[in-house]
Amino acid sequence: MTDSTVLQVSDLKAWYGESQALHGMNFEVRRGEVVSLLGRNGAGKSTTLRTIVGLMRRSSGSVRLHGEEILGQSPEKIARRGLAWCPEERGIFASLSVAENLHLPPVVKPGGMTEDELLSLFPNLRERWRSSGGKLSGGEQQMLAIARILRTGADILLLDEPTEGLAPVIVQQIAEVVKAMKARGLTVVLVEQNYRFAARLADRHYVVEHGQVIDQMDRAGIEKDGKRIESYLRA
Predict the structure, then answer these.
(1) Angstrom distance (rounded) from CA 180 to CA 117
(2) Looking at the whole model, is its pTM more than 0.90?
(3) Given this model, what pLDDT does residue 158 score?
């Protein structure tokens, strides 16, 4: 663990009832990085994020945030430390307007983006400001889910399959948003099956299979030997 490490996951295991889903996850994330967890469906990527934010009832190992052990802490306490999770299902409230959804979570830290900054980053939301969450497209819901987190001041973001089911033009918009997060100094953990999307954005990649990391590669490695990572996702 280096001085720049903000999130350290060590020998992380988790269970759904009697079924073990994680078998010893090990990875670290440094301040200001975009790091991807790549793998096929069922590899354990989303379960890893759920365990980190305190949503798995049974787990073991270690999750250190800024050097402090957080495994076993409540999701509320973890969130107040500036660690935010954007789930694959997005969690948008269908009966609330875009404005109400955006302002629902409390601010947890100074430095969050203002409403004007968010609407400049997500112009679609400005157009749909009074629309209910249930009337938004999948891409608009994803933008709202990310915007909601950015307003809170959270500085470590866990994004679970942010491009799943979205049109290519929306995927490109999400890519620009991730770049903007990095430019702002935020730290991002990106769970993805879309290798091409992740390869454009992440500084480092961890390949997950059967609930553990089986390979890793940085940006330079991807440029030289990206086919190695792709082979895991096709197998």
Answers:
(1) 11
(2) yes
(3) 98
